[in-house]
Protein backbone atom coordinates (compact mmCIF):
# COMPACT_ATOMS: atom_id res chain seq x y z
CA UNK A 1 0.00 0.00 0.00
CA UNK A 2 1.40 3.36 -1.00
CA UNK A 3 0.04 6.25 1.02
CA UNK A 4 -0.73 9.54 -0.73
CA UNK A 5 0.88 12.55 0.98
CA UNK A 6 -2.00 14.81 -0.05
CA UNK A 7 -4.47 12.55 1.71
CA UNK A 8 -2.41 12.78 4.89
CA UNK A 9 -2.48 16.56 4.65
CA UNK A 10 -6.23 16.57 4.12
CA UNK A 11 -6.69 14.29 7.13
CA UNK A 12 -4.61 16.56 9.34
CA UNK A 13 -6.80 19.50 8.34
CA UNK A 14 -9.49 17.97 10.53
CA UNK A 15 -7.64 18.36 13.80
CA UNK A 16 -6.19 21.21 15.82
CA UNK A 17 -3.33 21.49 18.24
CA UNK A 18 -4.65 21.98 21.82
CA UNK A 19 -5.02 25.67 22.54
CA UNK A 20 -4.60 26.78 18.92
CA UNK A 21 -7.62 27.85 16.93
CA UNK A 22 -6.92 26.87 13.30
CA UNK A 23 -6.39 23.32 12.11
CA UNK A 24 -2.78 22.16 12.39
CA UNK A 25 -2.04 22.50 8.67
CA UNK A 26 -3.51 26.00 8.38
CA UNK A 27 -1.80 27.19 11.57
CA UNK A 28 1.55 26.09 10.21
CA UNK A 29 2.10 23.60 13.02
CA UNK A 30 2.65 20.77 10.51
CA UNK A 31 6.14 21.43 9.19
CA UNK A 32 6.74 18.43 6.97
CA UNK A 33 5.25 15.13 5.91
CA UNK A 34 7.24 12.27 4.42
CA UNK A 35 5.76 9.11 3.04
CA UNK A 36 7.60 5.84 2.26
CA UNK A 37 5.10 3.19 1.15
CA UNK A 38 2.88 2.61 4.19
CA UNK A 39 5.11 4.64 6.52
CA UNK A 40 4.29 8.25 7.35
CA UNK A 41 6.50 10.69 9.19
CA UNK A 42 4.93 13.93 10.43
CA UNK A 43 7.05 16.83 11.72
CA UNK A 44 4.98 19.11 13.91
CA UNK A 45 5.82 22.10 16.10
CA UNK A 46 3.45 23.17 18.86
CA UNK A 47 3.51 26.08 21.28
CA UNK A 48 2.01 24.42 24.35
CA UNK A 49 4.82 22.68 26.26
CA UNK A 50 2.57 20.63 28.57
CA UNK A 51 2.89 16.85 28.49
CA UNK A 52 -0.86 16.62 28.01
CA UNK A 53 -0.79 18.81 24.88
CA UNK A 54 2.12 16.86 23.41
CA UNK A 55 0.45 13.48 24.05
CA UNK A 56 -2.92 14.67 22.74
CA UNK A 57 -1.38 16.02 19.55
CA UNK A 58 0.47 12.80 18.91
CA UNK A 59 -2.51 10.55 19.61
CA UNK A 60 -4.85 12.63 17.43
CA UNK A 61 -2.44 12.53 14.49
CA UNK A 62 -2.17 8.75 14.74
CA UNK A 63 -5.91 8.39 15.04
CA UNK A 64 -6.90 10.66 12.15
CA UNK A 65 -4.40 9.09 9.74
CA UNK A 66 -5.54 5.59 10.73
CA UNK A 67 -9.19 6.61 10.40
CA UNK A 68 -9.04 8.66 7.22
CA UNK A 69 -6.02 7.44 5.27
CA UNK A 70 -4.92 3.92 6.03
CA UNK A 71 -5.78 1.88 9.12
CA UNK A 72 -2.44 0.03 9.12
CA UNK A 73 -0.19 3.00 8.40
CA UNK A 74 3.06 3.03 10.38
CA UNK A 75 3.23 6.54 11.72
CA UNK A 76 6.07 8.45 13.37
CA UNK A 77 5.36 11.86 14.85
CA UNK A 78 8.37 14.14 15.36
CA UNK A 79 7.03 16.69 17.81
CA UNK A 80 8.87 19.85 18.70
CA UNK A 81 7.81 22.46 21.24
CA UNK A 82 8.48 26.09 20.50
CA UNK A 83 6.91 28.05 23.35
CA UNK A 84 6.47 31.72 22.42
CA UNK A 85 8.99 34.00 24.11
CA UNK A 86 7.60 35.12 27.45
CA UNK A 87 6.39 38.65 26.97
CA UNK A 88 7.14 41.26 29.57
CA UNK A 89 4.12 43.26 28.55
CA UNK A 90 1.12 43.48 30.73
CA UNK A 91 -0.81 40.25 30.31
CA UNK A 92 -3.53 41.33 32.64
CA UNK A 93 -6.73 41.88 30.69
CA UNK A 94 -8.87 44.89 31.31
CA UNK A 95 -12.17 45.23 33.08
CA UNK A 96 -12.24 48.99 33.02
CA UNK A 97 -14.37 51.10 35.35
CA UNK A 98 -17.08 52.65 33.19
CA UNK A 99 -16.35 56.29 32.43
CA UNK A 100 -12.75 56.23 33.69
CA UNK A 101 -10.18 56.26 30.90
CA UNK A 102 -6.88 55.91 32.74
CA UNK A 103 -5.88 55.19 36.29
CA UNK A 104 -2.41 56.31 37.29
CA UNK A 105 -0.93 55.23 40.60
CA UNK A 106 1.60 57.57 42.19
CA UNK A 107 3.94 55.73 44.51
CA UNK A 108 7.13 56.28 46.43
CA UNK A 109 9.26 53.83 48.23
CA UNK A 110 10.12 56.17 51.06
CA UNK A 111 7.79 58.49 52.97
CA UNK A 112 8.11 62.25 52.83
CA UNK A 113 9.68 62.48 49.38
CA UNK A 114 6.80 64.63 48.15
CA UNK A 115 4.56 62.02 46.54
CA UNK A 116 1.34 63.73 47.65
CA UNK A 117 2.66 67.15 46.66
CA UNK A 118 3.57 65.87 43.20
CA UNK A 119 0.19 64.09 42.84
CA UNK A 120 -1.77 67.21 43.77
CA UNK A 121 0.23 69.28 41.31
CA UNK A 122 -0.10 66.71 38.55
CA UNK A 123 -3.86 66.69 39.13
CA UNK A 124 -4.32 70.46 38.93
CA UNK A 125 -2.01 70.68 35.90
CA UNK A 126 -4.02 68.02 34.07
CA UNK A 127 -7.20 69.93 34.96
CA UNK A 128 -5.62 73.16 33.68
CA UNK A 129 -4.85 71.35 30.43
CA UNK A 130 -8.55 70.63 30.08
CA UNK A 131 -8.67 67.00 31.19
CA UNK A 132 -11.35 65.63 33.48
CA UNK A 133 -9.44 64.61 36.58
CA UNK A 134 -10.19 62.61 39.69
CA UNK A 135 -7.88 62.05 42.62
CA UNK A 136 -8.17 59.24 45.10
CA UNK A 137 -6.12 59.68 48.24
CA UNK A 138 -5.46 56.16 49.45
CA UNK A 139 -2.78 57.14 51.91
CA UNK A 140 -4.34 55.58 54.99
CA UNK A 141 -1.32 56.48 57.09
CA UNK A 142 -1.47 60.20 56.42
CA UNK A 143 -4.16 61.37 54.05
CA UNK A 144 -3.00 64.88 53.19
CA UNK A 145 -4.90 65.58 50.01
CA UNK A 146 -7.94 67.34 51.55
CA UNK A 147 -5.52 69.93 53.03
CA UNK A 148 -3.46 70.23 49.85
CA UNK A 149 -6.60 70.91 47.80
CA UNK A 150 -8.17 73.11 50.49
CA UNK A 151 -11.23 70.96 51.07
CA UNK A 152 -10.39 69.62 54.53
CA UNK A 153 -13.62 70.98 56.02
CA UNK A 154 -15.83 69.51 53.34
CA UNK A 155 -17.43 66.09 53.20
CA UNK A 156 -18.54 64.09 50.18
CA UNK A 157 -22.33 64.20 49.78
CA UNK A 158 -24.56 61.25 49.12
CA UNK A 159 -26.44 61.52 45.84
CA UNK A 160 -28.86 59.30 44.04
CA UNK A 161 -27.67 57.92 40.73
CA UNK A 162 -30.00 55.54 38.87
CA UNK A 163 -31.75 54.61 42.09
CA UNK A 164 -28.53 53.94 44.00
CA UNK A 165 -26.89 56.03 46.71
CA UNK A 166 -23.48 57.17 45.58
CA UNK A 167 -20.74 59.26 47.15
CA UNK A 168 -20.12 62.50 45.30
CA UNK A 169 -16.42 63.42 45.28
CA UNK A 170 -15.56 66.87 46.61
CA UNK A 171 -14.29 69.18 43.87
CA UNK A 172 -11.79 72.02 43.80
CA UNK A 173 -9.49 73.48 41.12
CA UNK A 174 -11.25 71.22 38.59
CA UNK A 175 -10.17 68.09 40.48
CA UNK A 176 -12.64 65.63 42.00
CA UNK A 177 -11.33 64.23 45.25
CA UNK A 178 -12.10 61.37 47.58
CA UNK A 179 -9.85 60.70 50.51
CA UNK A 180 -9.71 58.43 53.52
CA UNK A 181 -9.15 61.74 55.32
CA UNK A 182 -12.82 62.68 54.81
CA UNK A 183 -13.88 59.78 56.97
CA UNK A 184 -11.48 60.18 59.88
CA UNK A 185 -11.11 62.87 62.51
CA UNK A 186 -8.27 65.34 61.74
CA UNK A 187 -6.08 64.23 64.64
CA UNK A 188 -7.05 60.63 64.63
CA UNK A 189 -4.22 58.28 63.82
CA UNK A 190 -5.48 55.81 61.26
CA UNK A 191 -4.18 52.38 61.99
CA UNK A 192 -6.04 50.25 59.53
CA UNK A 193 -5.31 46.78 58.52
CA UNK A 194 -5.18 45.92 54.84
CA UNK A 195 -8.67 44.37 54.56
CA UNK A 196 -10.37 47.34 56.27
CA UNK A 197 -8.52 49.82 54.17
CA UNK A 198 -9.23 47.91 51.02
CA UNK A 199 -12.97 47.81 51.84
CA UNK A 200 -13.01 51.58 52.33
CA UNK A 201 -11.07 52.06 49.12
CA UNK A 202 -13.44 49.84 47.21
CA UNK A 203 -16.33 52.00 48.39
CA UNK A 204 -14.53 55.14 47.32
CA UNK A 205 -14.06 53.66 43.88
CA UNK A 206 -17.17 51.67 43.13
CA UNK A 207 -19.76 53.42 45.35
CA UNK A 208 -18.68 56.85 44.18
CA UNK A 209 -20.05 58.86 41.33
CA UNK A 210 -16.83 59.83 39.55
CA UNK A 211 -18.75 60.31 36.32
CA UNK A 212 -16.56 60.76 33.23
CA UNK A 213 -12.81 60.99 33.94
CA UNK A 214 -9.83 61.15 31.62
CA UNK A 215 -7.53 60.45 34.54
CA UNK A 216 -7.97 59.06 38.00
CA UNK A 217 -4.79 59.61 40.01
CA UNK A 218 -4.15 57.42 43.02
CA UNK A 219 -2.02 58.82 45.79
CA UNK A 220 -0.69 55.59 47.27
CA UNK A 221 0.65 55.27 50.80
CA UNK A 222 4.45 55.26 51.01
CA UNK A 223 6.23 51.93 50.82
CA UNK A 224 5.38 48.62 49.22
CA UNK A 225 3.01 46.95 51.65
CA UNK A 226 -0.18 44.94 51.57
CA UNK A 227 -2.35 48.00 50.99
CA UNK A 228 -0.65 48.42 47.63
CA UNK A 229 -1.44 44.86 46.75
CA UNK A 230 -5.06 45.39 47.85
CA UNK A 231 -5.35 48.38 45.55
CA UNK A 232 -3.81 46.57 42.60
CA UNK A 233 -6.21 43.73 43.31
CA UNK A 234 -9.29 45.86 43.08
CA UNK A 235 -8.39 48.38 40.39
CA UNK A 236 -7.39 48.25 36.74
CA UNK A 237 -4.37 50.54 37.13
CA UNK A 238 -3.15 51.72 33.73
CA UNK A 239 0.30 52.77 34.81
CA UNK A 240 2.37 53.79 37.79
CA UNK A 241 4.81 56.59 38.45
CA UNK A 242 7.35 56.48 41.24
CA UNK A 243 8.48 59.63 43.03
CA UNK A 244 11.89 59.85 44.64
CA UNK A 245 14.36 62.42 45.83
CA UNK A 246 17.93 62.06 44.52
CA UNK A 247 19.05 60.84 47.95
CA UNK A 248 20.59 57.38 48.16
CA UNK A 249 18.19 55.94 50.78
CA UNK A 250 15.15 57.28 48.91
CA UNK A 251 16.46 55.78 45.67
CA UNK A 252 16.90 52.37 47.26
CA UNK A 253 13.22 52.45 48.27
CA UNK A 254 12.15 53.81 44.87
CA UNK A 255 13.87 50.81 43.30
CA UNK A 256 11.69 48.57 45.49
CA UNK A 257 8.66 50.58 44.37
CA UNK A 258 9.43 49.99 40.70
CA UNK A 259 10.10 46.31 41.42
CA UNK A 260 6.74 46.02 43.16
CA UNK A 261 4.87 47.14 40.04
CA UNK A 262 7.02 44.99 37.79
CA UNK A 263 6.73 41.75 39.73
CA UNK A 264 4.85 39.07 37.86
CA UNK A 265 1.79 39.04 40.09
CA UNK A 266 1.21 42.79 39.70
CA UNK A 267 2.72 43.66 36.33
CA UNK A 268 1.56 47.27 36.10
CA UNK A 269 3.55 49.25 33.54
CA UNK A 270 5.85 51.79 35.16
CA UNK A 271 5.40 55.03 33.25
CA UNK A 272 8.54 56.42 34.82
CA UNK A 273 10.35 57.97 37.73
CA UNK A 274 9.96 61.55 38.96
CA UNK A 275 12.77 63.30 40.79
CA UNK A 276 11.38 65.62 43.46
CA UNK A 277 13.49 68.06 45.45
CA UNK A 278 16.03 67.68 42.65
CA UNK A 279 17.82 70.86 43.67
CA UNK A 280 17.20 73.93 45.81
CA UNK A 281 16.78 77.31 44.22
CA UNK A 282 16.46 80.30 46.55
CA UNK A 283 13.65 82.62 45.51
CA UNK A 284 16.06 85.58 45.32
CA UNK A 285 18.60 83.63 43.21
CA UNK A 286 16.43 81.75 40.72
CA UNK A 287 19.40 80.75 38.55
CA UNK A 288 21.33 79.07 41.35
CA UNK A 289 20.95 75.35 41.86
CA UNK A 290 22.10 73.59 45.04
CA UNK A 291 21.91 69.81 44.89
CA UNK A 292 21.12 69.26 48.55
CA UNK A 293 20.04 65.62 48.24
CA UNK A 294 22.54 64.72 45.52
CA UNK A 295 22.54 65.21 41.78
CA UNK A 296 20.55 63.28 39.16
CA UNK A 297 20.07 60.27 41.45
CA UNK A 298 16.56 59.46 40.17
CA UNK A 299 17.63 60.07 36.57
CA UNK A 300 20.38 57.50 36.96
CA UNK A 301 18.02 55.08 38.66
CA UNK A 302 15.60 55.39 35.74
CA UNK A 303 18.42 54.66 33.29
CA UNK A 304 19.54 51.74 35.39
CA UNK A 305 16.03 50.24 35.59
CA UNK A 306 15.33 51.10 31.93
CA UNK A 307 12.18 53.04 32.74
CA UNK A 308 11.48 56.58 31.50
CA UNK A 309 12.70 59.57 33.48
CA UNK A 310 9.67 61.86 33.67
CA UNK A 311 11.23 65.05 34.99
CA UNK A 312 12.56 66.92 37.97
CA UNK A 313 10.88 69.26 40.41
CA UNK A 314 13.08 71.60 42.44
CA UNK A 315 12.90 72.11 46.18
CA UNK A 316 11.16 75.46 46.41
CA UNK A 317 9.77 77.11 49.50
CA UNK A 318 6.62 78.15 47.68
CA UNK A 319 5.83 74.53 46.78
CA UNK A 320 5.76 73.66 50.48
CA UNK A 321 3.80 76.81 51.35
CA UNK A 322 1.33 76.22 48.54
CA UNK A 323 0.72 72.71 49.85
CA UNK A 324 0.11 73.99 53.35
CA UNK A 325 -2.41 76.62 52.31
CA UNK A 326 -4.21 74.26 49.94
CA UNK A 327 -3.41 75.88 46.64
CA UNK A 328 -0.97 73.68 44.68
CA UNK A 329 2.00 75.60 43.30
CA UNK A 330 1.25 74.46 39.75
CA UNK A 331 -1.69 76.88 39.83
CA UNK A 332 0.79 79.77 39.76
CA UNK A 333 1.08 81.63 36.51
CA UNK A 334 4.32 82.00 34.58
CA UNK A 335 6.68 80.77 37.30
CA UNK A 336 9.48 78.19 36.85
CA UNK A 337 7.56 75.96 39.29
CA UNK A 338 4.44 76.02 37.12
CA UNK A 339 6.63 75.29 34.10
CA UNK A 340 8.34 72.36 35.82
CA UNK A 341 5.01 70.76 36.69
CA UNK A 342 3.71 71.36 33.18
CA UNK A 343 6.72 69.65 31.59
CA UNK A 344 6.40 66.78 34.03
CA UNK A 345 2.67 66.36 33.36
CA UNK A 346 3.19 66.38 29.59
CA UNK A 347 5.81 63.65 29.95
CA UNK A 348 3.46 61.54 32.06
CA UNK A 349 0.68 61.89 29.48
CA UNK A 350 3.10 61.09 26.67
CA UNK A 351 4.26 57.92 28.39
CA UNK A 352 0.67 56.96 29.06
CA UNK A 353 -0.23 57.36 25.40
CA UNK A 354 2.77 55.21 24.46
CA UNK A 355 1.71 52.63 27.00
CA UNK A 356 -1.87 52.58 25.74
CA UNK A 357 -0.80 51.96 22.18
CA UNK A 358 1.68 49.27 23.17
CA UNK A 359 -0.22 47.29 25.78
CA UNK A 360 -3.68 45.86 26.43
CA UNK A 361 -5.80 47.34 29.20
CA UNK A 362 -4.90 46.33 32.71
CA UNK A 363 -7.35 44.19 34.59
CA UNK A 364 -7.71 44.28 38.31
CA UNK A 365 -5.03 41.89 39.37
CA UNK A 366 -5.87 38.60 40.92
CA UNK A 367 -3.23 38.05 43.57
CA UNK A 368 -3.49 34.81 45.40
CA UNK A 369 -0.22 34.98 47.24
CA UNK A 370 2.04 37.68 48.56
CA UNK A 371 5.10 35.55 47.98
CA UNK A 372 7.70 37.34 45.95
CA UNK A 373 6.85 40.75 47.33
CA UNK A 374 9.83 40.97 49.62
CA UNK A 375 8.70 44.15 51.32
CA UNK A 376 5.39 42.74 52.48
CA UNK A 377 5.35 42.38 56.22
CA UNK A 378 4.59 38.89 57.39
N1 LIG B 1 9.48 70.21 45.66
C1 LIG B 1 9.24 70.56 46.90
N2 LIG B 1 9.69 71.74 47.39
C2 LIG B 1 9.46 72.10 48.68
N3 LIG B 1 8.77 71.36 49.55
C3 LIG B 1 8.29 70.18 49.11
C4 LIG B 1 8.47 69.73 47.79
N4 LIG B 1 7.86 68.54 47.67
C5 LIG B 1 7.32 68.26 48.85
N5 LIG B 1 7.57 69.23 49.73
C6 LIG B 1 7.17 69.29 51.15
O1 LIG B 1 7.72 68.11 51.76
C7 LIG B 1 6.83 67.58 52.73
C8 LIG B 1 6.49 66.14 52.38
O2 LIG B 1 5.76 66.15 51.17
P1 LIG B 1 4.55 65.17 50.92
O3 LIG B 1 3.61 65.15 52.07
O4 LIG B 1 4.02 65.48 49.60
O5 LIG B 1 5.36 63.82 50.87
P2 LIG B 1 4.83 62.33 50.73
O6 LIG B 1 5.89 61.60 50.02
O7 LIG B 1 3.48 62.30 50.18
O8 LIG B 1 4.80 61.87 52.21
P3 LIG B 1 4.04 60.60 52.83
O9 LIG B 1 3.76 59.69 51.72
O10 LIG B 1 5.01 60.08 53.82
O11 LIG B 1 2.76 61.16 53.42
C9 LIG B 1 5.61 68.50 52.71
O12 LIG B 1 5.78 69.45 53.72
C10 LIG B 1 5.68 69.19 51.36
O13 LIG B 1 5.07 70.46 51.36
TrEMBL record:
CDD domains: Mrp_NBP35
InterPro entries registered for this protein in UniProt: FSCA_dom_sf (IPR034904), MIP18-like (IPR002744), Mrp-like_CS (IPR000808), Mrp/NBP35_ATP-bd (IPR019591), NUBPL-like (IPR044304), P-loop_NTPase (IPR027417), YlxH/NBP35 (IPR033756)
Alphabetical UniProt keywords: ATP-binding, Hydrolase, Iron, Iron-sulfur, Metal-binding, Nucleotide-binding
Pfam families for the chain: FeS_assembly_P, ParA
PROSITE patterns tied to this protein: MRP (PS01215)
A molecular function (GO) term: ATP binding
Binding-site residues, ATP: 109-116
Domain MIP18 family-like: 5-53
Assembly: Homodimer.
Functional description taken from the UniProt entry: Binds and transfers iron-sulfur (Fe-S) clusters to target apoproteins. Can hydrolyze ATP.
Membership in a protein family: In the N-terminal section; belongs to the MIP18 family.
Annotated protein name in UniProt: Iron-sulfur cluster carrier protein
Amino acid sequence: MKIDKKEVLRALENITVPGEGQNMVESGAVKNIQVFGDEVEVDITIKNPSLQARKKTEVEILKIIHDKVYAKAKIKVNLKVEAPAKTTVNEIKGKPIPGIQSIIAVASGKGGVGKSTVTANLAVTLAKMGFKVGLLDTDIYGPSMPIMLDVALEKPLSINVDGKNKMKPVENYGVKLLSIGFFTQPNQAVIWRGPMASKALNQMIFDAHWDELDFLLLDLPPGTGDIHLSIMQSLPVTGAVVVSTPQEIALADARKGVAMFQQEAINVPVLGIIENMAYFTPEELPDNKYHIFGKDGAKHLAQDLKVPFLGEIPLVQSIREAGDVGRPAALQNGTPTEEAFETLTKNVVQELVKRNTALPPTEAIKITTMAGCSAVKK
